[in-house]
Design a protein that fits this description.
155 residues, 5-stranded parallel sheet, 5 strands, globular
């Protein structure tokens, strides 16, 4: 019998719907199973926790092979917005929360939310640029200390 997972640390590095939702779904599922969770938002993944950006996350249409025919038209004006609206509508029908709601819900279960210091510095951001659920801005070394003994998932 396999050992049970007691802790996961999830790295969120992409700032698109298809980059953020998998991390949130994994975190939510882990918390539902009683697994300790820490989310580490880095690079464009910071958009998921940015006060002014987290409600405006779009689906990446250019270079996204999962969209099939929409990928060919992905660079045309309005295609990304239309596909984002379509996906948000489908998720709403399935009662999947918006990114801000999902992040708040996961934080309320006790999951840790952290911003990457190197990325925060790179983009000239500060703690007050992020939603209240972000506990701290930490270094990669601090993230690894926090992740010690658990699984790391990179999305």
């Amino acid at each position: 019998m396999a050992d049970s997972i007691e802790k996961v640390s999830i790295i969120v590095s992409k700032g698109s719907l298809e980059g953020i939702y998998p991390a949130l779904i994994m975190a939510n599922g882990a918390r539902a199973e009683g697994i300790d969770v820490n989310l580490f938002f880095t690079f464009f993944g910071l958009d998921a926790i940015h006060k002014e950006r987290n409600e405006h996350i779009k689906l990446a249409t250019v270079g996204n092979p999962g969209l099939h025919l929409a990928t060919m038209a992905g660079g045309l004006p309005g295609v990304s917005t239309a596909m984002t609206h379509y996906m948000n509508h489908k998720m709403e029908k399935l009662d999947i929360p918006s990114i801000p709601e999902f992040v708040e819900m996961i934080a309320d279960t006790g999951a840790g939310m952290y911003a990457c210091k190197a990325s925060v510095d790179l983009f000239g951001l500060e703690k007050n640029d992020f939603i209240d659920q972000v506990q701290d801005i930490i270094t990669v070394g601090e993230f690894y200390e926090m992740a010690a003994g658990g699984q790391i998932i990179f999305t």
